[in-house]
Amino acid sequence: MADLVAGYERRLSDEGDAVERFLGFPPDTEERLEAYRAASPIHSMLPLATTTLIVTGTHDVDVPVDLTLAFVDAAASAAAEHNLNSEVRLRFLKVLGADHYDLLDGSSLYWLTLLPAIEAHIAAILRP
User: Which of the residues 26, 46, 50, 120 has an alpha carbon 20 to 30 A from that of 80?
Assistant: First the structure.
């Protein structure tokens, strides 16, 4: 999840507490939102320093597509702002029908789409 603040505010995960469990801050801790912000890639990793493949499933309720798209848009904006468009490439793949765990399970049929995309991404990085 690229935006832990948004994930916390939207109470994402099956139990709605994924961000608190991941970072270990209980909901009543004053500094929690600042800690979530500091740990969020959308707030702390941009502009991206490496070529990056971002993947989401269209049926992912744990990390909804709109949060992933917000990160992709923010990364593209940060790259443009820092004149990195030609140096750092951002690739985005939306896997139709896949949920959160389909993309993590190498035995999932969705890997028939995902594996070639990963291979193409790696090949593009390795090309001079």
Answer: 120
Handedness of CA 33, 19, 100, 115 (dihedral sign): positive
- Residue range 50-92, pLDDT digits in tens: 889 999 999 999 899 999 999 999 999 998 888 876 667 788 9
- The answer to whether 89 and 50 have CB atoms below 8 angstroms apart is no
Contact (CB, 8 A) for 99 and 60? yes
CB neighbour list of residue 81: distance below 8 Å, 6 or more residues apart: 47
Residue 89 to residues 7, 16, 62, 66, 82, Cα–Cα distance (Å)? 26, 33, 26, 21, 13
Q: What is the CA angle 32-37-42, rounded to 5?
A: 155
pLDDT of residue 99: 93
Q: Which two tokens stand for residue 16?
A: 């709605």
Which of 2-6, 29-33, 90-94 comes out lowest in average pLDDT? Answer: 29-33
